[in-house]
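Please fill in the sequence for the structure shown.

STRUCTURE ENCODING:
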């Protein structure tokens, strides 16, 4: 008689639908205004102290949860990787057109890769980047986050 514990059947592959990201925010209303502009869509659900954006590109279940907190916490920054510098520039233009303040870092070495990127900050100070990796796996001796004008703590911390 064969034991069920000895079977070597491969478990079925899980097909993920999308990533889920939940942010704590100080004001759901203020954050809705920002993320409506950033994502270019309306929230799919709004309740007292809560909002959900069902983002299709990139696939993301993104929620805002209102609460009180003293600082940003341990989150360094958030990002969306795209295919090309043209996509970075198109996203920057979309964000600028929506009234968001952007900051560019082109041909910057960060996280041991050469990248083109642009940044925005949400009302709670969370930094978002849209970026393309131009060259990856730079040697450890390569400077990391070489943008010497970077006053942004998320940029400075990307290689911490």
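FILLED IN BY: designer on duty
SEQUENCE:
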């Amino acid at each position: 008689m064969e034991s069920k514990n000895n079977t070597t059947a491969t478990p079925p592959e899980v097909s993920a639908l999308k990533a889920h990201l939940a942010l704590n925010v100080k004001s759901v209303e203020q954050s809705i205004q920002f993320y409506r502009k950033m994502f270019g869509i309306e929230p799919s659900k709004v309740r007292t102290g809560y909002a959900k954006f069902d983002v299709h590109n990139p696939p993301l279940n993104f929620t805002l949860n209102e609460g009180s907190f003293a600082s940003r916490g341990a989150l360094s920054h958030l990002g969306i990787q795209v295919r090309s510098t043209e996509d970075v520039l198109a996203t920057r233009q979309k964000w600028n057109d929506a009234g968001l303040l952007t900051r560019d870092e082109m041909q910057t070495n960060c996280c041991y890769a050469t990248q083109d990127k642009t940044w925005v900050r949400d009302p709670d100070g969370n930094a978002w980047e849209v970026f393309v990796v131009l060259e990856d796996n730079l040697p450890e001796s390569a400077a990391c986050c070489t943008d010497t004008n970077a006053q942004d703590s998320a940029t400075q911390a990307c290689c911490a």
